[in-house]
Amino acid sequence: MRYKVTVVGAGNVGATTAQRIAEAELADVVMVDVAADLATGKALDMMEAAPILGFNAKISGGGDYGATEGSDITVVTAGLPRKKDMSRDDLLAINQEIVGEVVRQVVQRSPGTILILVTNPLDAMCEVARRVSGFPRERVFGMAGVLDAARMRYFIASELNVSVEDVDAFVLGGHGDTMVPLPRYATVNGIPLPQLLSADRIEAINERTRKGGAEIVNYYKQGSAYYAPSAAVYDMVAAILHDKKKILPCAVLLQGEYGLNDLFVGVPARLGAGGMEQVIELELTAEEQAELHKSAEAVRELVEALPK
Ligand code: TXD
User: Fold this and answer.
1) I want to staple 232 with a disulfide (CB 3.0 to 4.6 A). Which of 146, 155, 184, 208 is the partner?
2) Ligand 1 centroid vs 75 CA: distance in angstroms?
3) What angle do CA 163, 285, 160 make, to 5 degrees?
């Protein structure tokens, strides 16, 4: 049996995600973009690599949603990326219109699909997708935490000169400057991070993690990160299609967990064949809880600014 994954937006994150999924033969991939020729051309270019790399997945691309019918998962990257000196929140108005229309088109043809949102401002776009699709929270959630945690893991591994494979870390909260890195839950091969690094060094890593997106934007000037973001989406897609039951930080609609309601916030969740199968509640200190609520407030402000 072959799975089908639709990726809307064949830009940097979308195309790289499509490439990663196809090269791993995880699923056939359909890319859709308003820039139809761009999607068609990138799909053809990737397929022409298939004989060399030896993958059998099919990638197609264009402007028509017809080809997306019956998708198991749909990844939404359509929108404008953040430019230098532009906050994620500035993107709100433009991207809510784009994401709303994309989700309408997608769910008409794939009413059972699982929606993974990537477009910024991420947490608010999840809410737009939820409203338009009417899907339960198991089938509409966002990618941000896997990326933010991967950045933190990389910074920890570099600082300690250990393998990235040995480092685990969690980042909670909204995907913005108020995100909450959780060094207490970071480990190096099971050893808690606070036993390995001074509080000062840990705080420096937290700060670099919070600003990780901006650090890349400053280098690229035009556009934002996509290699690590597409790897993060790939991890989530693989967890679902292979029913891995992997615990990954995702933007999930909270319904009472962490004392928060009806708001998409980044928390650890179990991903498997059923999509977002369970929210994992971590025990937080009063300070961590306060930071999480502050981050959630920033998300709420954005959601309240959305046109009804
Ligand atoms: O952690 C995260 N969630 C993120 C989010 C990490 C990285 C990037 N993040 C956000 O994803 C970023 O701020 C943007 O909002 C999206 C996509 O980023 P990307 O870097 O891929 O942007 P591009 O290269 O500009 O690609 C966007 C594509 C482009 O080809 C447009 O033509 C297309 O989206 N687009 C559309 N496709 C379909 N339908 C509509 N309406 C549409 N509008 C634009």
Assistant:
1) 146
2) 11
3) 15
